[in-house]
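@channel sequence for tomorrow's demo:
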Amino acid sequence: MSFDQPRSHRHIPASQALEALSPPAGSSRICIGDITRVLDDRAWGVIVLALAFPCLIPMPIPGFGLVFGAPLLVISLQLAAGQKRPWLPAVLSRQSIDLETWKKSLAVILPRMRKVEKILRYRLPWLSSTAGERLTGIMMVIVSALLLLPVPFTNIPLGIILCLLGLGLFERDGIVLLIAWSLSLIALMVFSGLILFGGTAVIGLFA
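structure tokens (generated this afternoon):
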């Protein structure tokens, strides 16, 4: 796998791209398909951020992780496979979130995101090359799959990792990608430990 040159870098903040996302006129809900309409050379980062940042808002909604985790997993698999543009099947594209909830989420997340953006810059370009993007996709597959697991209180930490992966992709910041890759592997080890511990405990009950 060769490390070719990264795609062109534009200085449009991720927060600005997220803020510009809006549903069709007259609609009170924003669909996952509306999000995937943002297609430029950093579409992957935009979509990952848009799907991941709602996970940072504590919401006692059953299946909330599934609503965003499933599209994230599909997108991640495509990025890992080297697909040029993201695509979602209709059943996932129609998944939606109430527009008011979306706006409230933006109001909480965007001020914090703008602070983070001040320290982001175009660094270690080989990490955002096509090969680097595919490795990022693999890490996203891991974290998205963990997000689908019915483990309480994990949406926020996993959402943070996904947002870092999205920001690293969007801003072509190799340092942020390295941090996000490391956190992805740590999350995998923690979840593996929890599953192993839980499995051992269950076996002990019936031993």
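heads up for whoever presents: Confidence is low (pLDDT under 50) at residues 1-9.
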